[in-house]
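Lecture notes, unit on protein representations.

Consider one protein chain, 250 amino acids long.
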Amino acid sequence: MQRYGLIGKALGHSFSKEFFTDKFKREGLADHRYDLFELADISDFPQLVQADPELRGMNVTLPYKQSVIPYLTSLDPLAAAVGAVNTIAIRNGELIGHNTDVFGFRSLVEPIIGSLRDPGSDVRPRALVLGSGGASRAVAYVLREAGIRFRIVSRDRSRGELTWDMVDRTIVSVCKLIINTTPMGMHPNVEEAPPLPYEALTTKHVLVDLIYNPERTRFLKHGEEMGTRTIGGLAMLHAQAEEAWRVWKG
């Protein structure tokens, strides 16, 4: 049996088990299995790996995308550059960290980057990244790659350029791309949304939510009410999961 799985603190929201179980069935991989491993603390991770020699790979979700790094044997160059890991390959006793969130987010935003630029203007588009965790680091990497200026919003000023109370109508009006990397609005807290002045949104804005459960979060619904283009996180989930499978297959 080849086992794979997802580690995180609370995994009731996750579609990963369903995604990979269906994938293994479609590909006729009866000896492959995917499980959810809820860890109360990342310090429980080594015991999980040692207890199951059949583990071949793992996905990592919040809040462990950064705190898992000290427990790994090595990082691939992209994960090292991002500073966060969401996929682990286990080979010959070595745990190698990868970041497939970059691949997933890149596939999500590449089609819309052109629409963020004003016709005839050389001014680079601006973005707001909501949250400063592991997913935020992958988003920041892709935005730098695309030449989009951005500011990170966090509860702690030491982790971002802005705190939530600093985000006013002017900032929102200037930043045409807004990406939510926080868990605000994730099942079961579906009525939550990042505290923003949504009335400053326009039809030229694009809201991206990395949350995929529910598919249409309160954050996205606020944007839709203002005529704003919205993109949910399900497509990113599928893209990063397929990339994780490629990593595991080597």
